[in-house]
Amino acid sequence: MIREVGALPEGERPWCAGVVVAAGRGPDLLVEEAFGWSVRYAAYDEATDRGVELPRERWVPMRTGGRGAGPGRDRGQDTVFDLASLTKLFTTIVAVRCLERGEIDLDGRVAAHAPEFTAAAEHGITVRQLLTHTSGLLPELPLYDYAGHEQRLARLHTEPPTAAPGTARRYSDLNFLLLQRVLERVTGRSLAHLVRDDITRPLGMTATRYRPPRAWLPRIAATEDQRRPWAKLDRGMLRGVVHDENAYALGGIAGHAGLFSTAADLTLLCRALLGGGPPVLRPESVELMLAAPGLGFEIDQRWFMGELAGRGAAGHTGFTGTSLVLDRATSSYLVLLANTVHPRRRPADSAPRAAAGTALARALRPGTPGP
């Protein structure tokens, strides 16, 4: 399956410096492979449009801890990735847990829980509209350009939708920043604690968290030499701190980005949502979340799922090169974690993700060999 991903260790401009892929069906882990480098470049040279490579002895390979993804396996060597927008899936699960507990109502007004969101109050934005990207809000705001935390939140509170809520779908990070505030308000706990208590601790996901500790640094894949004009901030080569500029400006804990994890940990989540592991949600809640049009999850998106799409597959991508797909029709999953922004971001290309999805879909068809 790595061949389908197209990650090349050498070459002028590979799709990514390195990648970890995990795929499974039911309780069986079919593929767990690591390829290439989690750290290869010291910087990006704008003049030559090339990465400035570290000395070869300082390159760090992508790693997995060996086959098997159960809670008891030794995952201490697995490469840790900045999940970017895969964080939204965790925020979604927390929201659905709050729904199960009666703490929120999908069609309740955002302002009922967070009245400081004056624009949401004026336009009647609902929790469901946040989860389905139908609030009408802009895709993002330059919150990182504001001097302090209060100023950043004030801009978020007053930003009006550009289309009538509920009339059209427009993907927006702002939806999950608003959702974060709602969840924190109704529970009295931070999003980081909610993710831990509702998801990672029950599933034994010991390598999934916001703001990873320094002790994890040798395991963490580098992302970008973040400098203007291609980035929005000047921070240099990033490793172990969140790549997303708004999540960074908000302290590293955000509803839309900020989580770090491993492929092995994400397989535990996939199995739980497919009914093959300890449950984090009731079956009817999983159905609500994963059935079209979906809550937080993208449904049947061939551009990154390949031939897994078409029968109700659900998943998401992340800007740093991450993706996750659940195919409930075959009880299978595909986790692909890459550092495509190392040493700098490029125009989006999900063809390798789609190719991996197609490889898995074809391998699971009757009469075909395994991945």
Q: Mind explaining what this structure looks like?
A:
This protein has 371 residues and is of the alpha+beta class. It has one domain: 3-Layer(aba) Sandwich (Beta-lactamase), CATH 3.40.710.10. Helices cover 30% and strands 17% of the residues. The chain has 13 helices and 14 strands. It has a seven-stranded antiparallel β-sheet, with helices on both faces. A three-stranded antiparallel β-sheet has the order 6-10-7. It has a two-stranded antiparallel ribbon with strand order 3-4. Strand 3 and strand 4 form a beta hairpin. The longest helix has 15 residues.
Strands across the major sheet, in which order?
5-2-1-14-13-12-11
Shape: globular
Structural class: alpha+beta
| CATH topology name | Beta-lactamase
How many whole angstroms does the radius of gyration measure?
A: 20 Å
